[in-house]
Each structure stands twice: as C-alpha cells, then as structure tokens.
Sequence to fold (173 residues):
Amino acid sequence: MLCLLAGEAQAQAGGMGGMGGMGGRSGRGMGGAGGSTQGGVDCRPSAAPEAGSPVQVNFRLTQLQDALHLRAEQMATWRSFAAKVRALAEDVSREQGRSMDLRPGADSGPLPGLKHVSRAVEAARSRMLALEEIEATSTALYKTFTPEQKTLADARVPEIVAPRAIAPVGSAN
Fold:
C-alpha cells in the first residue's frame, strides 16, 4: 500500500524528470540512491509517466489551471476543455494498451491484417473527433483569456493536448 501511494505521489509530481517534481533528481526512485522498499516490496517506479499519459496530462492541466488564475466566468469552459483533454488521454492510453499486447490469448489474440487496419482507422477517427471537440472548446476558452493567460496557454497547451503526437505545421517531419 505504501508503494502504491508513493508511486501515485511521484506520478502526480511529474515522475522522474517530468514537469513538476523536485529539481535535481538523478533518475533514481523515490528512495534516493537505490530506490526504496516497503515491507520487502520494491517501490522503485518502473518508469516516469510518459508525456501523454493520463496521469501526466492531469498533472499538467492542474498546473496550467493554477498558473492561469482563471476567473469565475472562465471556469465552466475550462472544466469542459479539461474534461475533453482527459478523455482523449484516457482513450489514447486504452488504445495503446490494446495494440501493444498482441500475444495469443491476450485480449482476443492477434488481429488479422485487415481487422488491424480497420481498428487503426477507427481509432484515428475517434481521436480526430476528440481533437475537434478540444479545438472548439479551447477556442471558446481562449477568447476569454487576458493577454497574459494567452501567453501561458500558447506555451503549455501543445505539451498537454498532443505532446509529440503531431508534428507542428511546417515542420520537416
């Protein structure tokens, strides 16, 4: 139980080397030099949460909300935006979990080629619809921002909504 709480606390703090967290981490677990154990259980995290993981997205949304100092009239739109972003992160995480486990007997076993392609198309459509909803909500929210809030949003939203998933317009990738 202690490991679970410690791991969740570290994930909420941005993991090792993620946004937030405590500066100067050397990439080791929460126990310092060699990680920690609780009751003989190894509590070292296996890895820091990935940039687009639901835990990291939630943490970054919370950080952004705090930094924006939202006014009361902005909160309803913010909540809608944040809920849509969290839902997308959860969907992407679920889909990645499905596609990563291709062992026979896992889920329903490996997919035949055409079914795999169909599932990929379905997932892409779902993500596109989710991103369009996020775009509409973020546009409405952005219209209510002060110049200072716009500057913060411009810097942080790309790392929250689609970190490394979509190359910037005009990039060579």
